[in-house]
Amino acid sequence: MNTALGLTYEACVRTLSRSATCTVCRDACPVRAVGLEGIRGSVTVALDRCTGCGLCSAACPTDAFTAPFALGEVLAGSDGQLACGQGGLPCIGALSAEDLIALATRVKVVALHDGPCASREPGHHAAAARAAEAQAFLDAVGIKATVSFAPAEALPPAADRRPEAAEPAKAPEVSAERRRMLRMLVPTLKQGPKEVLQQPDRLDRARMQQLPERRRRLLAALPPGVEAREATVPTATLGFVSSKQVDEHACTACTVCFSVCPTGALQAPRSLKELRFDTSRCTRCGLCHDVCEPDALRLAPETSLEDFLEFTPRVLARLPVTRCGECGLPYNRAEGSAGLCPRCWAMEEEAMDLSGGNR
């Protein structure tokens, strides 16, 4: 049985771009084991502080965390009655909305039972919200199943307890060169267990832009030929998926959004004349919005369930793209001038200014 928390940095949005603003794993951790002190603000986890509650793994939109319990066994062996500490589940807040939907599709009735739990606050607030999300999705696509949260008593108001908690003391840093020297001088010295998860120096590109396992479980659980009873739902209804809008004239065709999309939901052909979007792959991590400098990519006010159930990309925007006459790179015609991309046109103008306006 898996008892160790893991983190696939190639799937974490904070690893993929320094512009990422996601902090959900840190905010979900009730014991401040998760921090953002790694390379370029990447995620770190103090394993000696981690209690194995699994709240960070359920909160992560891209499934970058590996739950510190046998999630697959919990889901496969469940009859739908879920409580903290039963069947290997540390906390009902350790289950994502997608997994609740997949389970409900199989067993028809899922009930999250409130009760004594070391992670009750904030874990059970999250569980209640995800149960509501799961039920909203099931209703909208016409699957006859229920997901509910049964509170034993009124939950206390959600609160951020992080400011009151003391910051963990930082261990003195030891350089890599000094560590190598120590290993050479004392080759028989045994290394202790790894105490901190942190971003490695090198990343495996083959592990990037993968569909999260929880999304695979959800899509596999949906009945064949399922159709949306409601074509769209308000964006706020579902936190694990979204639809997008693009300002075609503001988009510069810079390629950053689909290059960093952790799940491959955003796509484009080599010509860059189109931007495509696969709603079924979107986990609403927000990274594409964070990296879009002209703010051309935005959340749509409604999430399309019809698009979600197509399981294929559709054209999100047709871009007025052409090739720069100087450097040959594609650019948005609305952003350039005289057949040149903005960068080459700026260099042309600078050269004209230096020469007194003569070409």
Write up this protein.
The chain has a 3-stranded antiparallel sheet with strand order 2-3-8. Strands 5-6-7 form a 3-stranded parallel sheet. The longest helix is centred in the middle third of the chain and has 22 residues. The chain contains 12 helices and 17 strands. About 9% of the residues have low confidence. The protein is globular and about 80 Å long. Among the domains are: 93 residues, Alpha-Beta Plaits, CATH 3.30.70; 33 residues, no CATH class. The termini are far apart. By secondary structure, it is α+β, with helices and mostly antiparallel strands. Helix 5 packs across helix 6 and helix 5 runs parallel beside helix 8.
Can you tag this structure with a few keywords?
359 residues; Alpha-Beta Plaits; 3-stranded parallel sheet; 17 strands; 15% strand
Distance separating the two termini: 72 Å
Tally the helices: 12
Q: Please, what is the average pLDDT?
A: 86
The topology string of helices and strands comes to EHHEEHEHEHEHEHEHEEHEEHEEHEEEH
Overall shape: globular
Tell me the strand percentage band: 5-15%
CATH class label of the domain at 227-319: Alpha Beta
- Main sheet attributes: strand count, strand direction, barrel closure: 3 strands, antiparallel
**Poorly predicted sequence stretches spanning 5 or more consecutive residues:** 161-176, 178-193
Based on CA atoms alone, the radius of gyration comes out at 24 Å
The CATH topology assignment of the domain at 227-319 is: Alpha-Beta Plaits
- Under the CATH scheme, the architecture of the domain at 227-319 is 2-Layer Sandwich
The residue fraction in helices comes out at: 25-40%
